């Protein structure tokens, strides 16, 4: 029996390795839902998904079904999707617009801020019944940065500002690319489930070591990956075909860095591409639109990309190359949902936004060339971890080589190492053992 005491939990994480039970044990999974997903700040939605009063989307954060809705006063609200009467899920549709939210079971209806408006047959209510006591529950805390809405279901704990910290720069890096300085996540979604633990996807976001191997089918004879951005003639040099098989990873790829900050967040450095040669009618028109808003110098600055993948631990990643926001939702120990939101740059020409989405279809849809490789790796890992003869998963690459980085105020290491994953397990320990 696993009681989840700090002592027991700490034994699962050793320097440079973690116990396989953190991926396979149902008791540990239950504790993760309670102590991580009900405590940490979690990405809930983006304000562009609910532009008008009454617009809503429904989703789940860990085990909590939520309604993300635009209230009559214009404010975004995160309400628990559960009727305060007998508990049915109130909104069943993935998205919609409503003046009021009415429960299918007994007809109770709620305002867009969750307050109870009407009870069917009110004459039957008990004498002590007061509508004020029966509003929809809300996330305990909510924070917003440039339209990104995060919630925490815990009253106490790190503030949203503390949680986000230096990761604001990673959000800025994406949002500043829009001529209007705003992004929109209203272009639909890719959604898939994989038979593996949620942490496999979270780890993978900052794992550059796997790319030359897992994604070998995405490179051409010269070792360059296919072009993934509008206007690029070729992709990143991932493999150096001149080297021997075991040393095939290109120096360009090996030169990548990863960075970590508090709370398990981190990012990998930009993918090196021929920026000066990037050109196409859609891209050139986009550059013009951006320069018209921010000036030529700032446009050049914005379009010199800094970040490849960024992780806001535990449930959100932002990809700078094939622009999207990815949300990770654990379902069981070995089942995880991933939702990919394409990013539209507000003020960019339609052809540019369309091109970005088309490229995202190629890299991160359920039938893509990149993400499907990872999903297969996750599935195989989950199968392999059933084996009981060896209990430990090794994460020791680059241990002791971490360096302080004063530019980003972060800790940095080669992206071919596993520092970022080790940092994720420090955050995992923090939430599982220490967070209020
Ligand atoms: Fe991958």
Give a written overview of the molecule.
The protein has 436 residues and is an alpha+beta fold. It has 2 domains: 46-145, Rieske Iron-sulfur Protein (3-layer Sandwich), CATH 2.102.10.10; 159-434, Naphthalene 1,2-dioxygenase Alpha Subunit, Chain A, domain 1, CATH 3.90.380. Helices cover 27% and strands 24% of the residues. It has helices spanning 6-10, 21-24, 26-37, 160-164, 168-175, 198-205, 211-214, 251-254, 281-294, 296-302, 350-364, 371-384, 419-434, and strands spanning 13-14, 17-19, 42-46, 55-61, 64-70, 76-80, 95-97, 101-102, 109-110, 116-118, 141-145, 148-152, 183-184, 190-194, 257-260, 266-269, 307-312, 316-319, 324-332, 335-342, 344-345, 392-394, 403-405, 410-414. The chain has a 9-stranded antiparallel sheet with strand order 14-20-19-18-17-16-15-24-23, with helices on both faces. It has a 4-stranded antiparallel sheet with strand order 6-5-4-7, with no helix packed on it. The chain has a 3-stranded antiparallel sheet with strand order 1-2-22. Strand 4 and strand 5 form a beta hairpin. The radius of gyration is 23 Å and the shape is globular. The two termini are 24 Å apart. The mean pLDDT is 94. Fe (ii) ion binds next to helix 7 and helix 12.
């Amino acid at each position: 029996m696993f009681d989840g005491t700090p002592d027991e939990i700490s034994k699962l994480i050793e320097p440079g390795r973690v116990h396989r039970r953190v991926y396979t044990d149902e008791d540990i999974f239950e504790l993760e839902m309670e102590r991580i997903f009900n405590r940490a700040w979690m990405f809930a939605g983006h304000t562009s998904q609910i532009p008008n009063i009454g617009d809503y989307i429904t989703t789940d954060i860990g085990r909590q079904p939520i309604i993300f809705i635009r209230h009559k006063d214009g404010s975004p609200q995160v309400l628990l999707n559960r009727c305060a009467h007998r508990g049915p899920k109130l909104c069943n549709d993935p998205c919609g617009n409503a003046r009021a939210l009415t429960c299918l079971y007994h007809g109770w209806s709620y305002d867009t801020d969750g307050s109870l408006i009407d009870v069917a047959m009110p004459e039957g209510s008990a004498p002590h019944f007061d509508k004020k006591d029966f509003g929809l529950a809300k996330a305990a805390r909510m924070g917003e940065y440039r339209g990104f809405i995060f919630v925490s279901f815990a009253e106490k704990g790190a503030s949203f500002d503390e949680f986000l910290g230096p990761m604001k720069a990673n959000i800025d890096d994406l949002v500043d690319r829009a001529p209007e300085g705003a992004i929109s996540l209203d272009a639909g979604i890719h959604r898939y489930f994989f038979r593996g633990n949620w942490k496999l996807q979270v780890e993978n976001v900052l794992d550059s070591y796997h790319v030359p191997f897992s994604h070998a089918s995405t490179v051409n004879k010269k070792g360059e990956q296919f072009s993934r951005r509008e206007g690029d003639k070729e992709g990143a040099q991932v493999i150096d075909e001149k080297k021997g098989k075991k040393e095939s990873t290109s120096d360009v790829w090996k030169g990548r860095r990863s960075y970590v900050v508090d709370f398990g967040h981190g990012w990998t450095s930009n993918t090196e591409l021929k920026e000066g040669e990037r050109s196409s009618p859609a891209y050139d028109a986009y550059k013009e639109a951006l320069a018209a808003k921010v000036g030529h110098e700032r446009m050049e600055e914005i379009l010199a990309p800094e970040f490849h993948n960024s992780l806001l631990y535990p449930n959100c990643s932002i990809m700078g190359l094939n622009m999207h926001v990815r949300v990770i939702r654990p379902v069981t120990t070995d089942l995880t949902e991933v939702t990919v939101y394409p990013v539209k740059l507000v003020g960019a020409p339609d052809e540019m936004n369309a091109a970005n989405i088309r490229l995202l279809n190629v890299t991160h849809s359920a039938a893509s060339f990149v993400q499907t490789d990872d999903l297969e790796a996750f599935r195989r890992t989950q199968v392999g971890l059933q084996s009981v003869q060896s209990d430990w998963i090794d994460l020791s690459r680059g241990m002791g080589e971490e360096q302080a980085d004063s530019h980003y105020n972060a800790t940095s290491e080669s992206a071919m190492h596993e520092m970022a994953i080790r940092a994720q397990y420090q955050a995992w320990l923090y939430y599982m053992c220490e967070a209020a």
